[in-house]
Amino acid sequence: MRRTWAPGRWLIILPPLLFLVIFFLVPFAFAFKISFAEAAPRVPPFTDVISFTPDHHLRLAISLGNYRYLLTDEVYGVAYLYSLRTAFFSTLICLLLGYPMAYAIARARKSTQALLLLIIMLPFWTSFLLRVYALEGIIRDTGFLNTTLLHLGLISQPLRIMRTSVAVYLGIIYSYLPFMVLPLFATLEKLDPTLLEAAADLGSTPWRAFLDITLPLSIPGVIAGSMLVFIPAVGEFVIPSLLGGPNQLMIGRVLWDEFFGNHDWPVASAVAIAFLLLLVGPIAIYQYYNVRQLEA
Amino acid sequence: MERRSSLPLLSVLFLGIALLYVPILVLIAYSFNASPLVNVWGGFSTAWYAQLLHNRQLLAAALLSVEVALAASTAAIVLGTLAATALVRFARFPGRLLLTGMVNAPLVMPEIITGITQLLLFVSMVQVLGWPHRGFTTIVLSHVTFCTAYVTITVQSRLQAADRSLEEAAQDLGATPARAFMEITLPIIAPAIISSWLLCFTLSLDDLVISSFVAGPGASTLPMVIYSKVKLGVSPDINALASLIVCGVGVCIVAARGLMLRGERRRALEAPGTTVRS
Predict the structure, then answer these.
(1) pLDDT (tens digit per residue) in A161-197
(2) CB spacing of A23 vs B141 below 8 angstroms
(3) Model confidence, pTM
(4) H-helix or E-strand containing A51?
(5) Which fold has domain A76-295?
């Protein structure tokens, strides 16, 4: 009779489960609580939401002021919309650029494939911050691109790219392209080539076969890649902060400034909670049902 | 799928690869520029590299970052391997869906949200428990959280692909489940554990946003120092530092992959029955 894990299995399950509950899940409860507090000049810099009076009565001091502030100050609405728009179009461009790349890698010889994948993966392993800084060296007014173009006589004035939306788009595409290519490659590689041969035998043109077979079958990869680009792009801070100007206000930057600039922790918490409920929440629920379907 | 790709397809592939690599190559070239002005080539010089050695603030931050990365990635491979084992081996247990959600969520959660929520947890914990004080401990704890997610995903897929019958055979021969796991399965998933340790190490070394929130006023990691310098404008010594980091990490990754591929090939030859996927 083979022994099972039964008695010891909680020793395996509990450490990661407890750690993640405490350090990943519980923090959201604290952020939620503090989003109802008010900024105060003390340590930590906010009022108590839940406290006990001297005669041991529970006292709740809930302030909705932070949420009202988010609704009335138009900076937040503008930043949300700008973040969504920027993330959407960068994801689209990543998809248009990444799909042919993934397709070409999937069709390459196995040995070339390993090399190409390593080339795509490598930037993901190297520092994100330093890569954004490296891009700044290219697109700055006195950067590599402008110097080269001026030298060749193609332009007479340096192109202004830094501190514009173009710089933010370039930054996101440059940083997140590998996240689009890898999941696309994973689905395209699994595609059964005999399906395409069958389509060709039945008289389908390669383009037609691509639209009817390859594209629909690669939809899971398209969704996975788009998620991996879109979600971090919406909350991006480093790229709009280093490459964007004062008009490239993204929600991550607003939250950062509220926290580090104004030292208003409750408003920063409210921004985070609103962001979570409006964007990450719906996506998490979608993922949850996906996982359940897969596990069923 | 193995067919020849058409010319437009290949040109997009190379355009994409060029986009990924040109900025880094230009940065490395500039790091050897003798002139402190970015747009003037003043001749070849390694002066900026020499200057790094005298920058105490940078060296202290680099040391802190390396210590954090070592601690966080080591703790994460333990927690992540446990989580992956639980998810692959135990079909149902209370909290399974919760665990699945929690190992996937950090991968898509915007860092800025993770950072602020974890900071609020830490300051509330200090008020009640008197622990953890902001600095090394809080940075490590927050890095372990997102690193554990990466380890779990990587080890999980490896564990699913591993041949279960070897472990079962060991158990039939009288090994306890724990012993069978340690002696049979652990060596099989070791490459995944090692590569996820490396990934965690680089992710931790690189993290700016979460560290900035949880570090507190006293501690500065290397990315925090780099960010504040870069924010003020171009600094040629950062070019040199960036080139060192990018090349160092690049060489390590390529070497690690090479070693791993060789190890897998050798194992595949020794045990023709087992399927090895890279």
Answers:
(1) 999 999 999 999 999 999 999 999 999 998 888 888 8
(2) yes
(3) 0.88
(4) strand A50-52
(5) MetI-like fold (1.10.3720)
